[in-house]
Amino acid sequence: MAPPPLAGVDCTHPGLAEPRTKEDWVTYVFYEPPPRPLLPPYDIYKAMDRDSTERRHLNRSRNRYHSALVLAWTPAISHFETEITELLAANEMAPPGARLGLLIDGPPTVGKSTLVKMIARKFEQDLREDFPERFAPERLGSYVPVVYISLTDQVTPKQISIAIARYLNVPTSGTKDTIDDRVLTALTACGTQLIIFDDLHFLDCSFKEGRASNDHIKFLANHVPCTLIGTGVDLEDSPLLSEGGPTGPVKQNSRLKTLASGPRTQTAGRFSRQELTPFALDSEADILQWVGVVRSLEGALSLYLHEEESLTRRHWRYLHDRTEGSIAGLHALLRRSAVRAIQQGTEAITRETMDSIILSYAHERAYAKVTELKSRKSTRGRSKQQPAADGSA
Ligand SMILES: Nc1ncnc2c1ncn2[C@@H]1O[C@H](COP(=O)(O)OP(=O)(O)O)[C@@H](O)[C@H]1O
Ligand SMILES: [Mg+2]
Predict the structure, then answer these.
(1) pLDDT, tens digit, for every residue of 228-239?
(2) Residues with CB under 6 A from ligand 1
(3) Which of 2, 181, 276, 351 could disulfide-pair with 106, CB 3.0 to 4.6 Å?
(4) What separation in Å is there between the alpha carbon of 350 and the centre of ligand 2?
(5) In terms of DSSP H, where are the helices of the chain?
(6) What is the pLDDT of residues 117-146, one digit of tens each?
(7) What backbone torsions phi and psi does residue 350 show, to the nearest 5 degrees?
(8) Domains observed in the chain
(9) How far apart are CA 10 and CA 270, in angstroms?
């Protein structure tokens, strides 16, 4: 039996679990991360006994705060917010079958799921402000503008419909046709405008159910009066885009690439695909974007002795090397470093603190390669300089 919830204690965090129902989603929409703790002056903090309840309490709330840190509203998020808002506006009264959807394609840990949820949350918050009557208590739960479905491995068409049914709180019993019918009716009745399918790569066509599940998403795209947004890894060959291979990039900037889909099936032209890539340092604009993200996370730290903007000014390149430009890696490194800085009493994140943190295996391997490459380059550089320095060239 599940333990009873702790009454009055805020120990849950909707961001920790994917929303599975409209109630979960509303909790997510209203969720505010732990606030920045109010710190007493450093002298008073230092004078507290290390084991005192007061100090433990303060540090626990700082750890909680750091564990959520902040989510940065990055240029990529702004870009996709504009795209999605425009799609929603252009699709609102469009006839069935004429509505275009968007697939956001990118490697793991670039922040795809976070991005779509942040945008959808803001979309719903704006609706709540603009149309309070739609969310009036007597209509509780009957207006559901956003449906968020996180797909699972080898998901079948019926499971997709069941996930939507469960989200909307409609019965999940019966045949696939029965559930489909209920789901289509419910989506229309709830006024759903935006459906998000997260982790579309789980509709892998090399598995038995993959193609059928893709066809099912196309079927939904055709029949529901909503805008569909999907995220996933390596969606280039997704049957949602085409039956054939994709054509090359038509527009490109550092983090976002818009690609035209290849030969089209009847529904193939209904999705565009854009990439979300890790942060790069290839141009000044790229560097500014990365530095901006570092600055917003660093600015949120709650440490007594951390030198303001030291990471932003001195360690931005190191942070990129450590994390391969992954926002997940950066967030994890700063969260862990902040907790360690408090635990060890240094109260500052320095290069030494960050060096002592072990990140994910993938990030550590990539960093090992970068450092090896850099040390080879500097050895080559030194051996080239050597003769000149000796005067023997
Ligand atoms: N905008 C952001 N600001 C700060 N951290 C972020 C942001 N987006 C993602 N992250 C961090 O990266 C982690 C993984 O992001 P996620 O959206 O799950 O990536 P993906 O879906 O691409 O695999 C998040 O849990 C969070 O710690
Ligand atoms: Mg994800």
Answers:
(1) 999 999 998 888
(2) 71-72, 74, 106, 108-114, 327-328, 331
(3) 276
(4) 30
(5) 22-30, 42-47, 53-68, 75-91, 112-130, 157-168, 176-189, 210-223, 284-298, 310-314, 316-323, 327-344, 351-355, 361-390
(6) 999 999 999 999 999 999 988 887 799 999
(7) -120, 175
(8) 75-276 (3.40.50.300), 282-375 (1.10.8)
(9) 43
